[in-house]
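Tokens as discussed.
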């Protein structure tokens, strides 16, 4: 029996060595490439080596909202403060049970109109349409029956007038130059069908007229750790995948899309919880199957500020929803895996998300189980295990801090000494504790997920500081 245990743990050990070497190598490469890309972007901006002049891509900004009375005003005001001329704002109230629509109508002096909306993509019917033309740009408010976020986005696409649209969460605000920067790849390359922006937690940030006037790490521990996590995520994989047109996810908080291609592909899938990733993968499939030249880009300097959950229960709800959406997207488009027709998207992007995103929580939980089992049968070198875990935490923490400080420096934010100490002190806690909690959360996400799978979910919001 003991020999069987030894053989089992030997194979498990070999597997985890290969798994961790692969993850560590990818993380190092992606952070190195990401940091380099950020510094190149900053240097280009300083030298003014960029597209300048009055070149504007007409854009419709779609804001799907469900029970967002706390944040919706600040979100719309951030859009009105954009340094951009040719755009419209479309707010889609997806059957909110609070005062979301009433606040938008009152604050922005909107009037009811009889406006027919053509169905380019399927969605629930509208109940009422309101418009306001006394603002900087036209604002449209559509109230409809609840159908989920994807259905609300499809309504926005149907109501939009312009050839490109932005999807944006109602609990987020954009910097004054975000729209200008996210459309830049469209001006640089004519075949761009989608562009992802960078998302940063707004907790602890004060924004006036679309400009950050005060920035510090959040007061609470949980949002602080998410700041480090967000920067590692957006700096790492997304910039690296952008190098070979391999991005398969654009955050639902901030993304630009070419409307005609999205409509031809069928729009957002209302039967998934991860409508943002599902659409991007669908665009890869649609363009390759129809032999359309295309690019899906990532704009590192187009920044959206969003609220990070401040309570663990809300964070767990969010991550469960994300993991279910990831599972649905990868399951629906599993035919692209290792398929030569899809190039590096099938061989690199899909493989990475399969192993290090979809399956990683199960692998990590299994790893903890084997450690406990090995300890129980006295087949583990405890000092070596502790040393190995310590090295793993330090390595991951260093890369997290590299990503964090690179992002802070390249977007010209200033940190106090207390913020620096807080970031350094919490990065190890984020890797060693929060990661394990979220691994268990994601590992159990698929239990009973079909019940309410199109639900928006309920997360406590706080008013965003925006003037």
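Sequence:
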């Amino acid at each position: 029996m003991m020999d069987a245990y030894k053989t089992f743990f030997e194979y498990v050990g070999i597997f985890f060595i290969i798994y961790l070497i692969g993850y560590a190598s990818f993380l190092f490469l992606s952070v190195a490439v990401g940091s380099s890309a950020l510094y190149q972007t900053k240097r280009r901006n300083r030298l003014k080596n960029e597209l300048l002049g009055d070149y504007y891509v007409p854009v419709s900004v779609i804001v799907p909202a469900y029970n967002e009375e706390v944040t919706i005003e600040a979100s719309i005001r951030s859009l009105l403060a954009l340094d951009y001329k040719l755009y419209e704002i479309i707010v889609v109230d997806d059957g909110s049970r609070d005062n979301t629509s009433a606040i938008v109508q009152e604050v922005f002096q909107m009037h009811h109109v009889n406006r027919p909306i053509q169905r380019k993509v399927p969605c629930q019917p509208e109940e009422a349409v309101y418009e306001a033309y006394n603002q900087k740009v036209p604002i449209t408010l559509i109230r409809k029956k609840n159908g989920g976020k994807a259905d609300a986005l499809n309504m926005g696409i149907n109501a939009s007038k312009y050839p490109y649209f932005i999807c944006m969460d109602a609990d987020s605000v954009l910097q004054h130059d975000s729209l200008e920067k996210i459309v830049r790849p469209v001006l640089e390359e004519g075949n761009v069908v989608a562009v992802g922006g960078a998302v940063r937690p707004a907790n602890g940030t004060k924004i006036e007229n679309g400009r950050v006037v005060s920035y510090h790490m959040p007061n609470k521990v949980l949002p602080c750790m998410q700041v480090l996590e967000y920067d590692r995520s957006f700096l790492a994989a997304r910039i690296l995948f952008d190098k070979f047109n391999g991005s398969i996810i654009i955050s639902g908080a901030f993304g630009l899309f070419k409307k005609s291609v999205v409509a031809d592909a069928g729009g957002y899938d209302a039967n998934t919880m991860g409508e943002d990733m599902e659409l991007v993968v669908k665009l890869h499939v649609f363009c390759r199957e129809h032999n359309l030249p295309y690019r899906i880009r990532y704009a590192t300097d187009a920044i959206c500020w969003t609220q990070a959950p401040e309570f663990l229960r809300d964070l767990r709800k969010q991550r469960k929803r994300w993991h279910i959406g990831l599972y649905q997207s990868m399951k629906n488009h599993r035919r692209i895996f290792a398929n030569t027709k899809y190039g590096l998207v099938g061989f690199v992007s899909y493989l990475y998300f399969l192993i290090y995103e979809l399956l990683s929580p199960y692998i990590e939980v299994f790893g903890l189980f084997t450690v406990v089992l090995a300890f129980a049968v006295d087949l583990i070198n405890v000092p070596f295990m502790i040393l190995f875990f310590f090295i793993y935490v330090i390595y991951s923490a260093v890369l997290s801090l590299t990503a964090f400080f690179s992002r802070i420096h390249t977007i010209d934010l200033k940190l106090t000494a207390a913020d620096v100490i807080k970031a350094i002190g919490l990065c190890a806690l984020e890797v060693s504790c929060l990661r394990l909690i979220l691994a268990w959360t994601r590992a159990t996400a698929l239990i009973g997920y079909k019940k309410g799978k199109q639900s928006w979910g309920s997360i406590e919001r706080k008013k965003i500081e925006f003037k």
